[in-house]
Amino acid sequence: MVETLKPVQSLKGRDFLSNLDLSPEEYRAVLDTAHAMKRGEFKGQRPLEGQTLAMIFEKPSLRTRTTFEVAMNQLGGHAVNLTNAEIGLGTREPVRDIALNLERWVEGIMARVYLHSTLEELARYSSKPVINGLSDLLHPVQLMADYQTIEESFPDTRGLRVAYIGDGNNMANAHIQCAVLSGAKLTIATPRGYEPNAVILLDALQRGADITLTHDPLEAAQGAQVLYTDVWVSMGQEQEASQRRKIKDFAGFQVTPAMLDLIAPEGIFLHCLPAHYGEEVVEEATLHPKSRVFDQAENRLHAQKALLYHLLG
Questions:
Q1: Does 20 carry a binding-site annotation?
Q2: Would the annotation count 142 as a binding residue?
Q3: Which are the catalytic amino acids?
Q4: What SS3 string covers the chain?
Q5: Is the entire prediction scored with pTM above 0.90?
Q6: How confident is the model at residue 238 (pLDDT cuts 50, 70, 90)?
Q7: With 50 as the cut, is the pLDDT of residue 76 above it?
Q8: What is the pLDDT of residues 39-54, one digit of tens each?
Q9: Domains defined for the chain, CATH in brackets
């Protein structure tokens, strides 16, 4: 498998703000490398020796911070954690100035931010790769881990029935983009008024993606091979929490073992975590035999190692 571990030269030095920053061939190369790294085929090699990744966090994180930091360490590099209290994106200093400083010291920037426009500004002014660790619009690194997890159960994702149930948020938008790359048949079920980004959806449809929107979660779940959900209240949306938590808008969208009984016998359940038990999911669903939630969390490490290897290696 040595061939799959050669960096894709077209990716070196590129930004990764959305999944569609990758071509289908580049997407395939990153996932192949992630699978190989998980198998241990890269153990002992240090391709990012001497390189440093700056990690900017406007939003707190368990999985994103831990996996990027561990990934850099395992690849021989180093990560520097920068909280918003320390750098003050756009307040203490302009985003432009932060980018122009960091590019002098590090080989890459990973940022987990509120506004997608912040990432675009970082990328505009930094000559070094900028990676989207999460924004209000997209969460592309999560989707790479998600599809690594999906491929562990379904190696060929072309035509695979994937159902996303819940809020049409950044995760739904990222799923739409990955439907273009993976060839999966995606159904998104949201309450009325919570649909995903219309521009992202139209772009994916124009690229040939097979995507269906519905307001019926049970219809979406029926026979699906992958069932996916995310929190109803994302960070930054807390002012809407009281409305959403009254279960008025999201009545019927909670993932339970009964809903998992509707998916295909070989189907799997995914949630990008953290889970708000009693809202979008119950504990019994994450601990269900069909759940791959914690495999999915583990794969954040392998998928991000692969991405860093190709962007920086």
A1: no
A2: yes
A3: 112, 139, 142, 230, 272, 300
A4: CHHHHCCCHHHCCCCECCHHHCCHHHHHHHHHHHHHHHCCCCCCCCCCCCCEEEEEECCCCCHHHHHHHHHHHHCCCEEEEEEHHHHCECCCECHHHHHHHHCCCCCEEEEECCCHHHHHHHHHHCCCCEEEEECCCCCHHHHHHHHHHHHHHCCCCCCCEEEEECCCCHHHHHHHHHHHHHCCEEEEECCCCCCCCHHHHHHHHHCCCEEEEECCHHHHHCCCCEEEECCCCCCCCHHHHHHHHCCCCCCCCCECHHHHCCCCCCCEEEECCCCCECCCECHHHHCCCCECHHHHHHHHHHHHHHHHHHHHC
A5: yes
A6: low
A7: yes
A8: 999 888 999 999 999 9
A9: 2-138+299-312 (3.40.50.1370), 142-296 (3.40.50.1370)
